[in-house]
Amino acid sequence: MKVAAVYALLFSPLVSAWAPVRVNGALAPRSLSTVSAALSQDELKKMVGYKAVDDYVKSGMKVGLGTGSTAAFAVERLGELLKSGELKDIIAVPTSVRTKEQAEELGIPLVTLDEESELDVAIDGADDVDDDLNLVKGGGGALLREKMVEVCAKKFIVIVDESKIGKGLGPAFPIPVEITPFCHGHTMRKVAALPSLKGCKAQLRLGSSSNNQIDGDEPAVTDNGNYIVDLFFEEAIKDPVAAGNELKNTVGVVDHGLFCGMTTAVIIAGKDGISVKTAK
To answer: Of 43, 86, 116, 146, which is the active-site residue?
Structure first.
């Protein structure tokens, strides 16, 4: 089925027209633009998830599968195209246990980085995006596996709705840091005292690791058996790259949710349609 027909079936009557999409502010041909402001957040997520697979995944590719509510739609679309035969000879690397389970249910062939260390493309959501396409990721607790997989991809495609686009990282969404359980209180204090993170409030994630809400009494545990500290900011981080380096060099930190200099393109769904920002 043609892409235009697929989108029409998915979103009609909410999607009422095909029009140019904006790429870095300029018009590009033959993409979906909505003229309705009635789309829900889930419908926006579905639009970008499906578009990412339609535009960037070809038969024979090795694909990194992200984690989270937006990435789940990309996984769904990949499964559909494999089932229909429109895509063939795909193998994929999941970034979490729940993505692995979804992919298995859809019949997507899976491998690990132990078997395939070079990927053609990875598709994932983000919790916050700045003007330089640096990201905050890890709200769903899979930041370590996401970074391990996505850094191996030739192209990293980020899919978000317009609420995730900001001017700076920090205030809009807390930055998650995966740490070892051993002496985690000590590591939290070391992290909060880093010069590049001045002014942050460090909070141990409790309950489920898949969100940063307090929904339990015990520390949240990742798929890797680690804890997560969420860093809350009132002002934007001045230098995300420096902050990432300081975090990575802190003993006790496994990895962090700052994804800097990794993004190939960001597909954004908003009330005016779909836009694409590409790395400079």
So the answer is: 146
